[in-house]
Amino acid sequence: MDIVVLDGAILNPGDVDWEPIRALGRLTVHDHTPPGKLLKNAAGAQVLLTNKTPLMGEDVDKLKDVRMVGVLATGYNVVDTEAFAKRNIPVCNVVSYGIDDVAQHTIAMLLELCRHVSGHTESVKAGDWKASKQWCYWKYTPVCLEGLTMGVVGFGAIGRRVGELAHAFGMSVLAKCRTPRNPPGYSPFAFVTLEQLLAQSDVVSLHCPLTPETDRMIDADAIAQMKKGAILLNTARGQLVDEAACAAALRKGKLGGMGTDVLSTEPPKASNPLLRSPNTVITPHIAWATTRARQNIINLTAENIRRWKDGTPVNVVNGVKD
Q1: To the nearest 10°, the Cα dihedral for 17, 13, 72, 162?
Q2: CATH at 296
Q3: 207 is catalytic
Q4: Is residue 191 assigned to a domain?
Q5: 266 is catalytic
């Protein structure tokens, strides 16, 4: 069995191990597959693995040897799943590979916005402490999380873990999800409507999928319902927020801060208004990128291939079960 990875460099720059996949067949790993090189790089592959290289439109029918497609991520919008379904080819993704990793990144951004560790470090290095007339100083007033309310939009595995971490910091937790069930054992906690969550939360953290219903769910109207000075966090999808509305709210002080690991266009265009917004922490879509999580992706992808080979495919996103 020939297995081809189209864009392995982002997942594995050399610090994780392809061996679980290599053990299942003849593995070829391309660091990147630029436009125009797809058919050449994919030639002969029965199992084709992609992270962000598009498999769309007319290219699907040209991939004559492919019998299974694996997405080296949870999101699979880069693959024309319906086109592969018409050829009875399963498309499988990986899930739950970095629950703690993403949750910790969410809290890291929150702590940076509340404690300004990096800003104060740079200030000290620039000589501000030495020049201070007092024994200590602060450029931004620190904020304590204890007693504040965390609103979690999307209460799947990552959202639940964020709630647990927020609770550990002494925060009350509110959650909005499509099917409220299995409330956590800690308190204070409550399932609420989105309107209630926006109105009552000091911090709003997004962990829901991108759907037609959630597309730009945090727009000017939603922000108007939030507390003045509330913090917005996003480690889900950039399109969940109206970036122009958020930038305007940050400039006016309606939003007290924003931390995001995702943007509507990645990498961002120079015109993205969040790049020039105050009190904004932006990381380059790296919440998932710990060594642990990336090795989990490889291990889970290997299991997807093994199960497909045995005739019992799992994590199929296009309904093909044969």
Answers
A1: 90
A2: 3.40.50.720
A3: no
A4: yes
A5: yes
- Give the model confidence (pLDDT) of 10-69 as tens digits: 999 999 999 999 999 999 999 999 989 999 999 999 999 999 999 998 899 999 999 999
User: By the 8 A CB rule, do 160 and 184 touch?
Assistant: yes
90 shares a domain with 160:
no
Which one is catalytic: 116, 237, 243, 294? Answer: 237
Question: What pTM was estimated for this model as a whole?
Answer: 0.93
Range of the domain at 63: 2-97+290-309
Mind listing the pLDDT tens digit for each residue in 290-315?
Answer: 999 999 999 999 999 999 999 999 99
Catalytic residue among 22, 30, 285, 306: 285
- Cα distance between residue 220 and residue 234, in whole Å: 16
Give Dmax (Cα) for the chain: 73
Which neighbouring-strand residues pair with 47? 3, 68
Of the candidates 32, 122, 266, 276, the residue annotated as catalytic is: 266
Distance between CA atoms of residues 76 and 88, nearest Å: 17
Alpha carbon 278 to its chain's center: 22
Per the document, the length of the chain is 322
Total number of domains in the chain: 2
User: For residues 297 and 18, is the Cβ–Cβ distance under 8 A?
Assistant: no
Q: In sequence order, which residues have a C-beta less than 8 Å from that of residue 108 and are 6 or more positions away?
A: none
- Note if 285 is an active site residue: yes
Give the DSSP letter string of 233-244.
EESS-GGGB-HH
